[in-house]
Amino acid sequence: MDIRIGENIKRLRGEKGVTQEQLAEILHVSSVAVSKWERGETMPDISLLPQLAFYFQTTIDELMNYDACAVELQITQFIQKHTEAAAAYQNEFCLQLAKDAFQAYPNDYRVMLIYMWDLIGGAADGDDAVIRQHNGELNNLCNRILAGCRDATIRADAHVIRGKILKAEGRAEEALALYRSELPDWYRTAGQKSEQLFAKDTPEFATLLRENITQLLRLALNKKSKEIWFCMDGSAEEKARQAAAFCDALQTLAPFFPDDSLPGLISYFAEDFTAKLQYLANADAEVIAKLKPYRIAN
């Protein structure tokens, strides 16, 4: 955040026609202190902000040059840019974006969380040595989130990071116990509980059930993409052939998807695997093309 409280005090003092000495007397501080504020060398004590705002007939936000809408827009733009870079596996660029955002907005819990994830190498990965290197900062940020943040999703991720810290310290059983106590299992998710709100003979139940099936299948396909890429032997071309064969197998299930959701699910898998070929293997166009027929936006 670009805080220009010193400039604003100088401007407002001039508009009001008072000297540094007169303002200092009103606030019970020295004129030297006022001078330092206006030169940007120091800032007023936080306890003086209400007095300053009242004296100049302004708000504390305006006094500090704080525009909540502008800040929210900047954070939203950061998150969008970071999401796009993460999808392209630009990990170093993501980390630099997160560092810059955290420096600018150190008290925003969303920025704080993204910064921590990038610092340790991502939600699904992470280097134990790097986590141990930063465990003091990570624990401090997690504690800040858990003490002050009310967003359940952000709080849950703070618990996840705490678990990663425990695991990096050789305390995997404690990490698993933490997850079991603080995170919901598969059957206590929002999707499952939303479905269970309605009787099974209602259209609401049918709609939510199908939405849950789609979400769970997307999760399963994401896992399958990772299994082929990370757990199976072979070159990038061989793995691309395996992924294409899996898409062919999925297409045979079309009769079981009367809502026509299957092509979108297959496309999701193909796009995810194509990204791995492009950004993790830097595969040539011929290899990447093996998944093209299965992508809706091909």
Structural overview:
With 298 residues, the protein is an all-alpha fold. The protein folds into 3 domains: 5-63, 434 Repressor (Amino-terminal Domain); 84-183, Serine Threonine Protein Phosphatase 5, Tetratricopeptide repeat, CATH 1.25.40; 191-294, no CATH class. It has helices at residues 5-16, 20-27, 31-39, 49-55, 60-63, 68-87, 91-104, 109-120, 128-133, 135-148, 152-168, 172-182, 190-195, 203-231, 236-251, 262-279, 285-288. α2 crosses α3 (31-39), α6 packs antiparallel against α7 and α15 (236-251) runs antiparallel to α16 (262-279). The mean pLDDT is 92.
Low-confidence stretches: none
Q: Quickly give the structural class.
A: mainly alpha
Give the overall pLDDT as a whole number.
92
Number of domains: 3
**Major beta-sheet overview:** none
Give me the strand/helix succession: HHHHHHHHHHHHHHHHH
N- and C-termini, Cα separation? 41 Å
Q: Work out the helicity level.
A: 55-70%
Shape, per Cα inertia axes: elongated
- Percentage of residues in DSSP E strands: under 5%
- Evaluate the radius of gyration: 27 Å
Query: What is the count of DSSP helices, taking H or I runs of 4+ residues?
Result: 17
Secondary structure tally: strands:
0
SSE topology sketch:
Blueprint: H1 5-16, H2 20-27, H3 31-39, H4 49-55, H5 60-63, H6 68-87, H7 91-104, H8 109-120, H9 128-133, H10 135-148, H11 152-168, H12 172-182, H13 190-195, H14 203-231, H15 236-251, H16 262-279, H17 285-288
Question: What's the quick description here?
Answer:
With 298 residues, the protein is an all-alpha fold.
